Automatic annotation (TrEMBL):
Alphabetical UniProt keywords: Glycosidase, Hydrolase
Molecular function (Gene Ontology), one example: hydrolase activity
SUPFAM superfamilies given in the database record: Nucleoside hydrolase (SSF53590)
Signal peptide from the UniProt entry: none
UniProt cross-references to PANTHER family, sorted A to Z: INOSINE-URIDINE PREFERRING NUCLEOSIDE HYDROLASE (PTHR12304), URIDINE NUCLEOSIDASE (PTHR12304:SF4)
Transmembrane segments: none
Record has Secreted as a keyword: no
Domain Inosine/uridine-preferring nucleoside hydrolase: 6-303
Name of this chain's protein: Nucleoside hydrolase
UniProt cross-references to PROSITE patterns, sorted A to Z: IUNH (PS01247)
Pfam families for the chain: IU_nuc_hydro
Domain of life per record: Bacteria
Length: 316
């Protein structure tokens, strides 16, 4: 099978961890490296968590890099629903695996330059604030040619925000980085709250994941159980949205998603609307549409995909 070269940039994070565990067992993906960033937790914790998840998922062969400690201009904010350690307070042993000595941003720029030289552009999956990618683009703008597509979780279009009235966490955490990325020539697909709120992980789903996921089932069950927001008013049921895993699902099976194309602007001046993702649905700006925004998801088929992937741990 021809594999797809990908880099995963993340801030684990419970849903980042579920995304990583799913990606680790997808035969279609060749994961070149995992970059970490300040986001749901400070960088030291997101880095440690990424190392722990590679150990849990039997993928210590994948290099893990530490990225940016801080957003570009604003003070860090951290996630609210990930527990004290960022992994739902699930206890993992201190990782034996060491991070690479190279900085994540240098790994990104080197990998993109290599992809250009080999004429084999890579896919970049971003599950957290866009600080690493924006910094890479500031240092070496030509690397955009080495990225076939950025698939990222972030933003809220027709939906309201989840961290403020207008803004989703990943965009609010580093709106200046988001502004740089969305103004670049990159091909971008976004999984915003409009999409992720269509895929709610209920206690019934969790029970099934625990049943199928073999040697990781205890830890996966704990991570998933912690993710239950119990916010029926917002989500229409018990459970929590499968935000970051949808990036992996999109890369593996884009036919399960429907997109609409629009120019996207990121608010980075107004405190009231800081981090808001503004889509020019009706061509008011005169700018060319530059982002594929996922607005529809076949949730049942996405769950079937994740059951199939995570059941691969039963054989490990
Ligand atoms: C995003 O924010 C984080 O807390 C999650 O990991 C996800 O990437 C959802 O708004
Ligand atoms: Ca995340």
């Amino acid at each position: 099978m021809k594999t797809l070269p990908v880099i995963i940039d993340c801030d684990p994070g419970i849903d980042d961890a579920i995304a990583l565990l799913s990606a680790f067992v997808a035969p279609k993906l060749k994961i070149l490296g995992i970059c970490t960033v300040c986001g749901n937790q400070p960088l030291t914790n997101t880095l440690r968590n990424a190392l722990q998840i590679t150990e849990l998922g039997y993928r210590v062969d994948i290099p893990v890099f530490a990225g940016c400690h801080q957003p570009m201009l604003r003070a860090p904010i951290h996630g609210q629903f990930h527990g004290e350690n960022g992994l739902g307070n699930t206890a993992f042993p201190a990782p034996k695996k060491q991070p690479e000595s190279q900085h994540a941003v240098n790994f990104l720029t080197d990998s993109c330059e290599q992809a250009i030289a080999d004429n084999q552009p890579l896919t970049l999956c971003v599950l957290g604030p866009l600080t690493n990618l924006a910094t890479a683009l500031r240092i070496k703008p030509h690397i955009a040619a080495g990225i076939s597509r950025v698939v990222l979780m972030g933003g809220a279009y027709r939906e309201a925000g989840n961290r403020t009235m207008t803004s989703e966490f990943n965009m609010l955490a580093d709106p200046h980085a988001a502004h740089i990325v969305f103004s670049s020539p990159l091909h971008i697909t976004v999984l915003p709250l409009d999409a992720t709120h269509q895929v709610i992980l209920t206690p019934e789903h969790v029970a099934k994941f625990v049943k199928v996921s073999g040697r990781i089932s205890a830890q996966l069950g704990e991570l998933m159980a912690f993710w239950d927001r119990n916010d029926v008013r917002r989500y229409g049921s018990r459970g929590g949205p499968l935000h970051d895993p949808l990036v992996i699902a999109y890369v593996l099976a884009p036919e399960l998603f429907g997109t609409e194309k629009a120019r996207v602007f990121i608010e980075h001046n107004s405190e009231l609307c800081m981090g808001q993702t503004v889509a020019d649905w009706y061509g008011k700006s005169g700018e060319t549409p530059n982002v594929d925004i996922v607005t529809r998801v076949d949730a049942n088929k996405v769950f079937a995909l994740f059951y199939e992937l995570l059941s691969r741990y039963a054989g490990k």
